[in-house]
Amino acid sequence: MFRFGSRRSARAIHRNVRDGASVDVSESDGVRALHLGSGTIQSAMRLNAPHDLELTYTRGMMMFLLLHPQAKKLLLLGLGGGSIAKFTHHYLPQHTVCAVEINPQVIATARSHFQLPDDDERLQTLEVDGVVYLREHPGEFDVVLHDAYGGQGMAEELSSQDFFDTCAGALADDGLLVVNLWGSDKQFDARLRRIEQSFAQRVLVLPTGHPGNVIVFGFRRAPTELRITTMRENAKKLQAMLKIEFPEFVERLLAHNRHTPSRFTVGAPS
Question: Running DSSP on this structure, what letter comes out for residue 119?
């Protein structure tokens, strides 16, 4: 989810209404956006670069590639317009992604208006309750990417202590949770504390705007390799490959998290 001010130039091009709830699509300045009954952008796609990540926070979520480079099996909670699922499927051939989305209108709109590809051996899109799915798949995923928002924000059942505990349980031993939070949300501090509790303080935060979206990374166990020099080197390589500002994100991590001169320190202060 990404919030924005009034965009009078946006043109409505599609509406899908079911049981009083709508999924809307607009276009402005070459960018197509998904909305869930409000002006809030849930997902965005630049029409001349449909596989790229248009919104900064979605690019920030890709920092899992630096924080857990061995990851291969991804679970995406919340499909939106399919930006992350498309990007992974197109640019990361060694990864598989399972996207779970409870709203069938969102899945249909992602396919009809945002070029989400059909399922294959590397992409699976499921119409299912994410909470139930997590509980049924313990220890299965290398990375869980949580970007499940409705028109009014993140539902409480997707941000409770029990939910973040369940996310931790769905990860492999060295797995990583990646959560998109809204920095100015009155529930931000409470949700961050819950993630910290579920992951024993093994957490890094990455602000991607002012105040804007804040990406939170929770490590299932203490990572063994978070050397700053290595991350900077790998960030430059990935930036060239994927057109994402990874070096800038590394510096933001340094500005907002504890570290020694040589590495990030993740976990409770000693």
Answer: P
- Residues 6 or more apart whose Cβ sits within 8 Å of residue 102: 127, 128, 129, 130
Strand partners, 118: none
pTM higher than 0.85, yes or no? yes
Torsion of CA 5, 180, 236, 122, to 10 degrees: -120
Q: Just list the catalytic residues.
A: 147
Domain locations in the chain? 11-46, 56-219
What is the tens place of the pLDDT at every residue in 177-225?
999 998 888 999 999 999 999 999 999 999 998 668 999 999 999 988 8
Q: How far is CA 91 from CA 67, 87, 202, 263, in A?
A: 18, 6, 29, 28
Mean pLDDT value across the chain: 92
Reply yes or no on domain 56-219 having CATH 3.40.50.150.
yes
Q: What is the mean pLDDT of residues 23-39?
A: 93
Could you read off the pLDDT of 129-159 as tens digits, one per residue? 999 999 999 999 999 999 998 777 788 899 9
Q: Return phi, psi of residue 124, to 5°.
A: -130, 130
Tally of CB atoms within 10 A around 23:
25
DSSP 118: P
